[in-house]
Amino acid sequence: MGDDEKRKSFLKGFEEGLRAAWREIASLTTRGYSSTELGVMAKSKLAVLYRDVEAMEARLREEEGIPIVGGGELTSEREVGRRGAYLVREPKAERVFRLFSDLLRTNGRGLCITRIHPDDLRSRYRIEEAGFIWLSKSAGTKARGMAVAEPSALVDIASAISDFADEGGNAAVLLEGLEYMISQNGFGSILRFLQKVNEKIVLSDSVLLISANPAAMKEQEYRLLAKEVAGEI
């Protein structure tokens, strides 16, 4: 199947899913629900559909190396630049770790900031040589080969990234747990945090990969994040 056929099949599936969602919502209008309740249900149905579309898009792009939705607006995985921050669009943090592993094979130096315990990541991905900062509220926790930072310690996390990048440039930094950090700090604080970190990443000719699920945040907030980075993958 050629690229055009794949795109057409995907878009057809999206269209059919959208119609099914609206048919179900329309059927609820005969059951006595208020307009407010119907609005909430509609948003819920569309959010689920959007998450499914994002998941399939990510899988197809990874397997086939082609953009499916958006007319090629997203950056190809092969187009991660020499420096800058990139949003890795995915419903669940998986692909970001594989991209990070690829960068480690090239750059050699890596720092992984994650909500997932480092021991679990080491057993799944080839990122054993990276340094780790575990985002956790378990203050005082000590473990092999990692530091622990509370998600609200944005100054400390930014300093750790800055110090790592200053050690010689050409660093690869991974940030997983963006939605968790937003819930703990508020979007405005995280946006300012990423603006500061991105400047250091660019100045040190390094790369920052940020795992992000657009369906898990407000559309306007995601667009603001996208404007601050070099591209979306």
Polypeptide structure, described:
Helix 4 (118-122) links the parallel strand 2 and strand 3 (131-135). The chain has 233 residues and is α/β, with parallel strands linked by helices. The radius of gyration is 20 Å and the shape is elongated. 52% of the residues lie in helices and 14% in strands. Strands 4-3-2-5-6-1-7 form a seven-stranded parallel β-sheet, with helices on both faces. It has two domains: 3-64; 77-232, Rossmann fold (3-Layer(aba) Sandwich).
Category from helices, strands and their pairing: alpha/beta
Low-confidence stretches are 66-77
Placed side by side, the strands forming the largest sheet appear as: 4-3-2-5-6-1-7
The oligomerization state is: single chain
Averaged pLDDT: 80
**Total count of domains:** 2
Bin the strand percentage: 5-15%
Major β-sheet profile: 7 strands, parallel
Number of E-state strands? 7
Please, what is the CATH homologous superfamily of the largest domain? P-loop containing nucleotide triphosphate hydrolases
CATH architecture of the largest domain: 3-Layer(aba) Sandwich
The ordered string of helix (H) and strand (E) elements is HHEHEHEEHEHHEHE
**How many separate helices?**
8
CATH topology call of the largest domain: Rossmann fold
Query: What is the level 1 CATH name of the largest domain?
Result: Alpha Beta
> What spatial form do the alpha-carbon principal axes imply?
elongated
